Amino acid sequence: MNDLLPTSTTREAASLGMRLLWRQRGLLVATVALLLLGTATMLLIPPLLGAIIDAVIAGEPFVNILWLGAAIAAAGVTAAALEGAGGILLVRCLQRALAALREDVFEAALALPLRRVEAAGDADVISRVTNDVESVTEAISGVIPMCARALFTIVLTLIGMAVLDPWLALAALIAVPIQVLTTRVFLRRSRPLYARLRVEEAERGRALVEAVAGADTVRAYGTADEHLDAIATASEIAVRTQREAGKARNIFSAGLNGAEFVGLAAVLAVGFIRVATAGLSVGAVTAGALYFHRLFNPIGELLGSMDDLQRALSGLQRLTGVVLSTGAATTPDTSTEIADGAVDVLGVRYRYGASATRDALRGVDLVIPSGATVALIGSSGSGKSTLARLIAGFDEPLAGEVRIGGVAAHLARSAGRPAALLVAQETHLFAGTVAENARIAAPAASDDEVTAALSAVGFNLAEVPGGLNATLSASVSHREAQQLALARVLLADPPVVVLDEAGSQAGADPTLAAAMRRASEGRTAIIIAHHLDQVRGADTIVVLEDGRITESGAPDELLAQPEGAFAKLWQLSRGPLG
Ligand SMILES: Nc1ncnc2c1ncn2[C@@H]1O[C@H](COP(=O)(O)OP(=O)(O)OP(=O)(O)O)[C@@H](O)[C@H]1O
To answer: Measured from the CB, is residue 390 less than 6 Å from ligand 1?
Structure first.
């Protein structure tokens, strides 16, 4: 089981929602005013209908009835126009809040420390920024406007009934305890059900993503059945919870129907008594009954949408969880411009996720002067990539510090961009053209600058049909991908570059070896070397073993110590190092 990202409390989620709405308070006030006016105008209709009934009973002239009819039509048209305008403003207001929410969540998801993402699993993060954003979006654009209208209608209708005859309003209130009880029972049952459902759906997603991502391994080891079983079990658990939630919804609807029946019966019975004993007109009682009838829909809609609101709330809680885990919503931007590319690694300890049993780095100290080239060597699993990722600012160490130009590596900036760029063995290329992929590093770079950077790393544009505007295909070679990554370094021009296995083929590929040297020129370079050819030009060689530095110094110094690890390697072979 992974360490899923946290889910916030209802209060934290509500406060995030309020903060988003507060940003458009002006629009919100205008919206509420229009909706209230519209609802109030619509409520003129039942008393006007009652007045027609009384006029007919009293035998008033036909023209009076016509006037009342015209007033009803005018009230209907005005109310529809006001409510329509209010509805449009409300959707605009909510859409803006939603856009801000989406931005906050995506920003927070991208800012999550890598360790946290790895511990939670990709599927958890993906399900939050897709499913949860979706469910909150649905609620915000559909349910909330409906709820707002329903709420206004209920409150104003009850006021209207009380003005007509307080006893009628009191009779209507008999439905309230039944509705409150039904809703409370439903909320108590459904809230944990929906929260559980989200977690179970994330688990199902994780099982699926794991099987698909590892399809080759699954096929090679014939473990498809085990994976299918795991997915089936996760699905079954989620479906069982969905069924439980459906049952809770049905009981809820039955309770609401019962409340409506009891309420209408009470209004009619009290109306009958009031006409007989208190001289209330038949028209007034009709208006009262129509008011109550008007409550059916909004109350049903409001309580019925509790279901969607619940789902949206648990989605919002999971989204707030993402925002709170990075602190993106509250922490001010503390990134700092640096003066030089000196790298200081001081007493660094690092571990992958809470479930890891040992540290990947166990107290590493390394001082690299600005502009120097350091080659990291060591056997597989010794911690080279981990150290490289910390220097590139992907994550913070568990203990100790990694500084660039005196600033914590994850906050260090040069010309507004991260101070250190990492070129990993696998380069991620986005769907798009050669130029678009190169410009990720420097969006404002001209075609000439992009062409110059590509040619400096040996990327031969002349051989690519379409040149800069050629669309990258899935079959782009490893060498071309590496060259694009190195060209990005030249375009971004960071003071520090970390080449993690970027040249694993460089020993056999002089073009890539030259491209790596070109990308390291004029900046501090940390190179994870897999071939002795790559360490020859380094100022310092650092040997890592089991998460610690066991040896470091200039190549000649280390070669002068025949018992040292580096000297032995040098004597033994000039083949792969680790
Ligand atoms: N994503 C991860 N999750 C958990 N443990 C990890 C992860 N990445 C690396 N490790 C562990 O951290 C330790 C250091 O790994 P690291 O990749 O830094 O070593 P390396 O020297 O770069 O190895 P290689 O040359 O094989 O890439 C190893 O024990 C490895 O198993």
So the answer is: no
